[in-house]
């Protein structure tokens, strides 16, 4: 009876060592440095031994990506812990916290957000696209809180490009499920195509801005990036009717 337990503990410890070593390589050198051979060399074991725990490098990177998303969500949850009844403040604190994290965790950001495949070579999707994961949940829970507390200026359904409607309809169903699980259930009739389109464009503008800043790709030199980011958030709030001059 005790032998499997000991083996289980040994396996967990080894997996922890592997993931910790992978994270060290990621932070120090970037996603490309996270290879089974490099991890094995750091741990003093053979690369084939790692296949007892992970089927491939992609499998390991996917688990590492989930670890990063979990840590990010925990950090953001701490940021908004004292803002329980303030949906708008929560949402914009999450936006600011996401930017802060991205600028101080550039290699992790690269792994999780810099490509649609999460840099693993497989169709893992971004951390927000996977709505049932920690980051997607905390972001959408705050957005749902805003929807419950405020009347937004939403684009009418007929302004949504017809070519996008099938994709947005499918996304609506996922959104409703996640919002319900987060305790922010929204009536299906309120989450129409216009609102779904609004949420997608909100994320695209936030993500695009942060990505440009992380990789230093602003089209002009910016001496006060904090001011530019705050102005972008104000524009977003104004566009959806949450702020007026």
TrEMBL record:
PROSITE patterns: HTH_TETR_2. Coiled coil: none annotated. Residues 12-72 form the HTH tetR-type domain. It comes from the Bacteria. This is TetR/AcrR family transcriptional regulator. The keyword Transcription applies. Residues 35-54 bind DNA. Transmembrane segments: none annotated. It holds the Pfam family TetR_N. InterPro entries: Homeodomain-like_sf, HTH-type_TetR-like_transc_reg, HTH_TetR, MT1864/Rv1816-like_C, Tet_transcr_reg_TetR-rel_C_sf. Keywords: DNA-binding, Transcription, Transcription regulation.
């Amino acid at each position: 009876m005790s032998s499997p337990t000991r083996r289980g503990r040994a396996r967990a410890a080894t997996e922890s060592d592997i993931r910790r070593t992978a994270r060290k390589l990621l932070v120090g050198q970037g996603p490309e440095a996270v290879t089974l051979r490099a991890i094995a060399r750091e741990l003093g074991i053979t690369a084939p031994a790692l296949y007892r725990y992970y089927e491939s490098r992609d499998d390991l990177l996917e688990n590492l990506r989930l670890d990063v998303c979990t840590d990010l969500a925990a950090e953001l949850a701490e940021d908004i812990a004292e803002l329980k009844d303030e949906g708008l403040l929560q949402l914009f604190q999450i936006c600011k916290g996401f930017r802060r994290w991205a600028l101080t965790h550039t290699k992790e950001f690269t792994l999780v957000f810099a490509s649609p495949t999460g840099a693993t070579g497989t169709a893992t999707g971004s951390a927000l696209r996977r709505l049932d994961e920690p980051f997607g949940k905390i972001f959408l829970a705050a957005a749902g809180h805003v929807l419950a507390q405020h009347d937004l200026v939403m684009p009418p359904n007929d302004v949504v490009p017809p070519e996008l409607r099938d994709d947005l309809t499918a996304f609506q169903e996922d959104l409703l499920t996640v919002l319900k699980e987060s305790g922010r259930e929204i009536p299906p009739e309120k989450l129409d195509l216009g609102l779904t389109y609004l949420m997608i464009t909100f994320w695209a503008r936030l993500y695009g801005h942060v990505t440009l800043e992380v990789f230093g790709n602003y089209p002009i030199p910016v001496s006060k990036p904090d001011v530019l980011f705050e102005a972008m958030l104000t524009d977003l709030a104004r566009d959806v009717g949450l702020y007026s001059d």
